[in-house]
Amino acid sequence: MPYSRPTLTQLRTTVAADIAASLAGSDPLLRFSNLGIMGTAQAGLAHLHYGYLDWISKQAVPYTATGEYLEAWGALKGVYRKDATAAGGQVILSGMVGKLIGAGTNVVRGDGRIYTVQVSVTIGGDGTAIASVVDQATGAAGNCAAGTVMSLSMPIAGVQSNGVAAAAFTGGADVELDDDFRGRVLSAFQQPAEGGNEGDYVRWATAVPGVTRAWCARNGFGTGTVVVYIMLDQANAVSGGFPQGTDGVATDETRSGVKATGDQLTVANAIFSQQPVTALVYVVSPIATAINFTITGLSGASSATRASILVAIADVLLRKGKPGGTVNLSDIESAIAAIPGTSGFVITTPAGNIVCSTGHLPVLGTITYP
User: How far lies 73's CA from each of 70, 186, 200, 250, in Å?
Assistant: First the structure.
C-alpha cells in the first residue's frame, strides 16, 4: 500500500508529545514556550525532509520524473526534448518597380514581433514583391493568420511601410512540455526499437520539432510502402494543426519521383536516415473530416457551458481520433456529462460511433442546440 506521508500538523503534534514524554513537567504546547518553538522548528525541518524524499522518489522513475531528470531518462533511450522552433512565412510588400528589399530587412507585426527577410527581393512589374521572412525569436507566438499586417522596421525609399502576410505563418512551436516529452519517453521504454515496426515510425516522426501526433499505415500505397500521417497541432494551429506542404517521399529517396515538400518533407528526411532500407516511406497529411453535432436538452445552456462542451468534444477527437479510425460516441458523451449543468442531454447527430475512411481524420464541425 502507498506510504502515508505525515502532515506538518501531525509532525508538530508528534514532536510535542515526544518532548512532553521525555521531559517531565514540561508543556511544549504553550504558545511562547522555548520548548514549543523548538518543537515547531524541528517539525518544520522534518516536513521539509519528507518533501525532499518525496521529490526524489518521483525522479527515480520516468513515469513521474520532471525537468532535467526526465531528460536524463529520455537520453537513456535516445529520446530528447524538442527545442522551440521559429515561425516563418511570406510578406507581400508594395512599392515602385525595381526597388530592392534586401536580405536582413526586418518587418514588425502589430504586437512588436520581429521577422527578418531571408532573401533579397525586388518590386516587380505589378508593384509588389513577396519576401520570405523568419521570426527572430522562437515559439508558437510567432504563428499568425494570413492577412496579418506587417510593417517595415526602417523605411525604404520607394517601398510602402505596410505589408500583409501572404499566407498563414506556421512552423513556430514552443519547447516541448514535460507531459508531451514524458509520453515519448515512456513509449520508448514500453516499445523498444524493433527495426522498423509501427511504433518506430511514430517515434521517428514525433521526434521532429513541431510534430505532435503521428500514425503509421502498412502498405498504404501498395506492397512495400509505409504511410506516415502527421499533425502539427501547435506549430500549425492556424491551419487546424494540419501540415503545410505536399505529400511524398524524402529528398534522397530514388524509388519514387513524388517528392514531399514543406512539413511533410522535413519529416520524410528525418525518417529516411533511420528507416529500414527496403521500406518506401511516404509522409502525408490526414484529410480533415468535419463532424457536426446536434445536442438536444441543452437549448437553455449558458454560453460558458456551450464553450466547455466544445472544448470537451474537441479534446476527445484530438486524443481518440486517427486517420481511418473510430471514435466511440460514448467517450464524447462521458466528456460532456462531466461538465456541470449538462444533465439530460442527448446527442442525436451523429447517431453512432464516428468511423472515418482511410486517411481521413475527424475534426470538430458545428454544434447545434435545437
Answer: 5, 9, 18, 31
